[in-house]
Amino acid sequence: MKSTIKSRFTTAICTTALALGAFSCQNNLLSPAPQTYLLAPQAYDTPSRVLAQVNGLYGYVKTGGFLGGRYQIYGDIRANDFINRTSNSVTGLSVWNHTESETSQNDVVNTWGFGYAAINEINIFLAGLDANTDKLAAAPFPTNYAATVLNYRGEARLLRALCYYSLLQLYARPYLDGNGTRPGLPLRLTPETQLGNNDLARSTVAQVYDQILLDLNYAEQNLPLTYTASQNGVSTSTLNVTRAHRNTAIALKTRVYLNMGRWSDVIAEANKIVPTAAPYVASTGVANGLNASIVSVFAPPQETTESILSFPFTAQDQPGTQNQLAYYYLPSSLGGNGEYGLNTAAGGLVSNTGWLATDLRRTNFVVKIGTESFLTKYPTGTPYTDKAPVIRYAEVLLNLAEARIRNSNTIDAQGLALLNAVRNRSNSLPTPTSPPIDYTATGLGSVSAALDALLLERRIEFLGEGIRNIDLMRLNTTIPGKGSVGAVAPTNTVYIWPIPATELASNGLMTRN
């Protein structure tokens, strides 16, 4: 494994729940063993130490430079709904204007490094469980601890799947381009504890997706249905948002299959947790459902049952400087730094007439200051403790809606109902004296119009959550221009990020994009 990957946490001895909002265990305070060595056997001596390692895995994945903030931001600012205001090279300027290079440290190099650091820690943990099977079956571990170990394996493999999925969206061609035959990522599935084994060829996009699905299928079978007991003082309601459970794996599979264009598989997975008619609430596992109020979903502590997985932060465990969602999007008058404002010009979402002026997502999550508009979906200024969203139940509903329409090539009735459910929870429902605002099959007129309406709804619903650019690229469509930045066609070399120079230098089998 390349030596540029560095650990942020020492998972073997951090006994505080990093992923659940506790302090980060700082290496310079602990004098640990060299980080290229396998975790000490003592890390598996007690249940609390094993749990600390699981929480540490979440800490790696939710680092601010990866899925704790920057990754979501990159997924929005690559597209055309935000305008860069500060020309700050540290906060995504090259991502916004598509000028990344192999040596772009703050984005191309760091995102790759954080992603693979998390993957390696997950692999180390899984190997450690294998190596300590006998120890985990004896005192002081309880007699039923084998089931807990399966839960932990499920969490680790779900996090690994999430990391690989996330990296694919930036560094590899969309699945639709070549049906997954294009170069993907080096698929590292075993722990790297020394500086060797750097050389590993890229698997294809399809092969990486296959591994993602293997991990998610395993996770679905082995994750807990729900968290029923608090841990280290953390409530079950918090755990069911910030720790993976069975529905988390199912929800992520709907996203993965959507990216692959496997519509029938999206439908099969979503049907596990989405009833055929409203109210839309999962009947098994965590009662994930479409919350009645979108405003409540993002109001602190951001722990409604709509949030299937989000990464938490506290004043003692922050995303880190210039990584925080609110820092980027809130204006300075509301506690942010206003790095990016909303694009109010033609082509931007704010000027789209399909986003109604009375929509609660506009009236509550957009503020106008002078001639500029800003996103206020993440309301917490300093010390920036908003949770970083990964997936919500609303996305599962819209994934299912899109899959049903594309799979049948009709304006499917259930697909239309799901679309209207998400749309209408943020818009006034029709009354006897006002016209209906539901989309109707006759009003839409065609499958193409229905899909356009659905993609617009996704754009509105997930503004600032990192999905916009993924939606464009999974369909192999042009990334629109904004401001002084031109559009990027799928054939353009900058449509995907370059492979970092650090990986090219250390991995002799790596190829450039």
Automatic annotation (TrEMBL):
<dbReference type="GO" id="GO:0009279">
    <property type="term" value="C:cell outer membrane"/>
</dbReference>
<dbReference type="Pfam" id="PF07980">
    <property type="entry name" value="SusD_RagB"/>
</dbReference>
<keyword id="KW-0472">Membrane</keyword>
<keyword id="KW-0732">Signal</keyword>
<keyword id="KW-0998">Cell outer membrane</keyword>
<dbReference type="InterPro" id="IPR012944">
    <property type="entry name" value="SusD_RagB_dom"/>
</dbReference>
<feature type="signal peptide">
    <location>
        <begin position="1"/>
        <end position="19"/>
    </location>
</feature>
<feature type="domain" description="SusD-like N-terminal">
    <location>
        <begin position="91"/>
        <end position="258"/>
    </location>
</feature>
<feature type="domain" description="RagB/SusD">
    <location>
        <begin position="383"/>
        <end position="513"/>
    </location>
</feature>
<comment type="similarity">
    <text>Belongs to the SusD family.</text>
</comment>
<dbReference type="InterPro" id="IPR011990">
    <property type="entry name" value="TPR-like_helical_dom_sf"/>
</dbReference>
<dbReference type="InterPro" id="IPR033985">
    <property type="entry name" value="SusD-like_N"/>
</dbReference>
<protein>
    <submittedName>
        <fullName>RagB/SusD family nutrient uptake outer membrane protein</fullName>
    </submittedName>
</protein>
<dbReference type="Pfam" id="PF14322">
    <property type="entry name" value="SusD-like_3"/>
</dbReference>
